[in-house]
Design brief:
The chain is of the alpha/beta class. The protein has a domain at 285-516: 3-Layer(aba) Sandwich (Rossmann fold), CATH 3.40.50. The chain has 24 helices and nine strands. It has helices spanning 7-21, 25-32, 49-69, 74-94, 99-104, 106-125, 132-148, 156-159, 161-173, 179-184, 187-194, 196-214, 220-246, 251-274, 283-287, 322-325, 328-334, 363-376, 396-407, 427-436, 449-462, 474-477, 502-511, 513-516; strands spanning 316-320, 339-343, 382-386, 413-417, 445-446, 468-471, 482-483, 486-487, 491-492. The longest helix has 27 residues, at 220-246.
């Protein structure tokens, strides 16, 4: 991770390091909502720790309930577990319109672990509960679920009743003497069972890192290498970590060991997040640090304040989303402009977008408050706006809202900086991989028709608004339609697919100073 994750990804991983240690990844994933700069699940080596969070929270809550309500009466014991199962399923039902809650939260996943409690109780009370027919039904349910249930089905949590019930039937009613029991008793399968926890912990990081280095394409050689590495690491961690902890160990040593690990990883995770993903690891990493102006504390800022403004009386405002924020540093530091940053990640410019994440306010509320600030401020004369303009031009509703916002700024000069051409791959990762693998890939690309359509549409729309000046930066970034990204050996115009780096934004601003009337 230290060598292959760019600062933006490394910063985000720091959060997951801390949340996974404290069994709270599932809570973080649910409450953070849509995080524009966040790791996608396919790029997150710790994404799967959400399920461990669910388990640990269950193991924390259930003993408390048992302490107060457990009785030795068998009927009461079965009733207690069935209440947990059906209550959890009912939580799924009443939260049907919030699939994220049902997926991540312990209250809606407790029924699955409740089936495990029920299986353990039945096996404890009935030493001989073998039933071949029920075992076969369980096997069919599990096999059928693997084949038939799509991972993105809207009713996934309810459909999971089938494989969970199937597993329950196999555990409770299978025997070493029936053919399914014999298959499950096969030594290689038993070994897989022994190292299954380690297999689970390692499989996602291995897939993420292999995809990061070699791309998501599936090949026999890639799968074979990943499988070999997975087995070696899983068996090693089972022998060196799991088995020693299962043996008798003094409470003092256990507490000291856990405390050292928790404290060390927590400090590293917090530091990595706070300092922007250890951006000073190398010259290349420094060049690929976040380019978001005054910093993440200004995401969703709608006021002139000390944190997001050069002074209390700015003459310029940078308004919009992350594509606007990339210009703040160059304007502020290289041209000493007295500006304020009013930006929010992921939100289309206008009053109708409703994206919301844990770090900021809803998009429509943000733009309403930001525009009100600009209308009431007497010192701001110029406003710079930019975006990818994908959503703004997607339909008439968003287009009209964008125009309405521009018209609400009729008392100031508005400069709309056009979109950057979208790359077909992540430029930052491409250049980093070329360095790691010592390849000569230049990570260039050609402009697509969609970008040309956006420029043509924006030019037409904005030409009818007298106080708005449209600035097309296509030729600055991609002379002759060829978008060459590399700047020297350790820098690039882009950070990712379309966000300008510090150097990239400096290049653009330098070329449009005359239009912006700055020197």
């Amino acid at each position: 991770m230290w060598f292959i994750f760019l600062p933006n990804l490394h910063k985000d991983v720091g959060v997951y390091v801390v949340t996974s240690i404290f069994s709270a990844t599932n809570l973080f994933l649910y409450f953070k909502g849509s995080s524009y700069w966040g790791l996608e699940s396919s790029n997150n080596p710790l994404f799967h720790t959400w399920s461990l969070g669910v388990e640990e929270q269950f193991y924390f809550l259930i003993p408390i309930l048992l302490f107060f309500f457990w009785k030795s009466n068998k009927k009461w014991q079965y009733s207690f577990i069935l209440i947990i199962i059906f209550t959890s399923l009912f939580v799924n039902y009443i939260n049907f319109k919030d699939p994220s809650f049902n997926f991540f939260m312990v209250f809606s996943r407790a029924w699955e672990l409740g089936f495990g409690m029920l299986a353990a109780l039945i096996k404890h009370n009935k030493k001989n509960s073998n039933n071949l027919i029920l075992t076969l039904i369980g096997f069919i349910l599990v096999l059928g679920s693997i084949i038939l249930i799509p991972e993105d089905h809207v009713l996934l949590n309810f459909l999971l009743i089938a494989p969970v019930t199937g597993s329950f039937l196999i555990i409770v009613y299978s025997s070493k003497n029936d053919f399914i029991g014999k298959i499950l008793s096969f030594k290689p399968f038993l070994m897989i069972g022994l190292i299954s926890y380690s297999l689970y912990l390692w499989h996602i990081p291995i897939l993420v890192y292999s995809n990061y280095l070699w791309g998501p394409e599936v090949s026999t050689n890639k799968l074979l290498i990943c499988l070999i590495v997975l087995i070696i690491l899983s068996y090693g961690s089972y022998q060196l970590i799991e088995k020693p902890f299962r043996k008798s160990i003094s409470l003092k040593k256990l507490i000291i060991s856990i405390s050292v690990v928790v404290l060390s990883l927590s400090i590293l995770g917090i530091l990595g997040h706070k300092n922007g993903g250890f951006k000073n690891r190398s010259e290349l990493m420094a060049n690929f640090q976040f380019n978001n102006g005054f910093g993440f504390q200004c995401t969703g800022n709608t006021k002139v304040n000390n944190s997001c403004s050069v002074s209390s009386k700015p003459s310029m405002a940078v308004l919009g989303n992350s594509h606007s924020a990339v210009y703040v540093t160059a304007l502020r530091d290289e041209y000493n402009l007295n500006l304020v940053q009013l930006t929010i990640d992921a939100c289309a410019v206008g009053y109708v977008d409703k994206v919301k994440d844990i770090n900021s306010i809803p998009c429509n509320k943000f733009y309403s408050e930001a525009i009100l600030t600009l209308q009431n401020n007497k010192t701001i004369k110029n406003v710079i706006i930019s975006s990818s303009f994908i959503t703004e031009l997607s339909n008439e509703l968003f287009k009209d809202s964008f125009i309405e916002l521009l018209n609400d700024l009729k008392n100031v000069n508005v400069f709309v900086i056009g979109p950057t051409p979208l790359a077909p791959f992540n430029i930052g990762q491409c250049l980093l991989k070329s360095k790691i693998l010592n390849s000569n890939k230049n990570c260039s690309f050609m402009i697509n028709d969609e970008h040309k359509y956006k420029i043509k549409t924006l030019s037409k729309i904005l030409s009818n608004i007298s106080h708005v000046k449209f600035i097309d930066i296509t030729k600055i970034i991609c002379p002759s339609n060829n978008c060459k990204m590399k700047i020297g050996e350790n820098d690039s115009k882009y950070l990712d697919y379309d966000h300008l780096s510090l150097s990239g934004s400096s290049i653009v601003i330098e070329k449009i100073t005359d239009v912006l009337n700055i020197k």
